[in-house]
From TrEMBL:
Keywords, alphabetical: Flavoprotein, FMN, Oxidoreductase
Protein name, entry field: pyridoxal 5'-phosphate synthase
Pathway: Cofactor metabolism; pyridoxal 5'-phosphate salvage; pyridoxal 5'-phosphate from pyridoxamine 5'-phosphate: step 1/1; Cofactor metabolism; pyridoxal 5'-phosphate salvage; pyridoxal 5'-phosphate from pyridoxine 5'-phosphate: step 1/1
Cofactor annotation: FMN
Lineage: Eukaryota, Metazoa, Ecdysozoa, Arthropoda, Hexapoda
Length: 213
């Protein structure tokens, strides 16, 4: 049996830079392609809180985490009604410079969701996979469906659009998150985690500190 205290060393003054460093290290273990998911929690009138997994799509030009969705989803409607959100990333098996594995959890606490302008959607839509583009047209998210009917609709859509470009539906959209705090937790096997938290100050600067796990 062993026990140790994890330590987060040499973290940059900007939390987004720190996040990028960890993502880069996480991607190293997946040279054939790397997708990063994130968990998004929203305020929901019916359930109080509702969370789900979404795909992390990168950073906006002004350095905020963003994801893509459709206006007919509950996550969109939740954020439209109440822009408060929390986002969690989990990155297991991230090697540090000495080759030691750690798991990281990165949280955007007290985030405000801001919808990206529609002028930015064409470029994002063009990069979507064929499946994602078709889904945007044929799936009534959250509604009960009959598999055979949906499959027939999918196959017909695929055939009709064979080789043609697929128009971006008006429902396609994206949200960025402006957090009050960034919370980074690092832990290895048989270790007590270390956490570094960045807190946004009134002057717009980030204050960073270790906090207990
Ligand atoms: C790996 C993975 C990635 C996903 N990515 C997205 C995404 O980027 N955007 C999205 O709206 N839903 C995504 N989903 C589906 C959501 O988890 C969710 O089921 C859907 O958005 C409806 O959720 P809601 O009812 O809370 O709105 C993803 C699911 C998985 C498992």
């Amino acid at each position: 049996m062993s026990s140790a205290l994890a330590k987060i060393e040499d973290f940059p003054s900007d939390p987004v830079e720190f996040f990028k460093e960890i993502l880069q290290a996480a991607a190293k273990g997946h040279p054939d392609g790397f997708l990063q998911e994130m968990n998004l929690a929203t305020v929901d009138e019916e359930y109080g809180v509702l969370n789900r997994t979404v795909l992390y799509r990168g950073l906006t030009p002004d350095n905020f985490v963003f994801y893509i969705t459709h206006r007919y989803t509950r996550n969109f409607k939740n954020l439209q009604a109440n822009s408060k959100a929390c986002v969690t990333f989990y990155m297991p098996d991230v090697k540090d410079t000495t080759g030691k594995d750690s798991s990281w959890q990165v949280r955007l606490i007290g985030a405000t969701a801001v919808e990206l302008p529609q002028t930015e959607m064409d470029a994002l839509w063009a990069k979507e996979s064929l499946a994602a583009q078709i889904r945007g047209h044929i799936c009534p998210c959250g509604e009960p469906i009959n598999y055979d009917e949906l499959k027939a609709r999918h196959d017909r859509f695929l055939q009709e659009h064979n080789g043609k470009s697929i128009a971006r539906p008006a429902s396609y959209t994206a949200w960025k998150f402006q957090p009050q705090r960034w919370d980074f937790l690092k832990v290895g096997l048989n270790e007590i985690a270390d956490r570094v938290q960045y807190r946004l100050q009134d002057n717009g600067k980030w204050e960073s500190m270790h906090v207990a796990t």
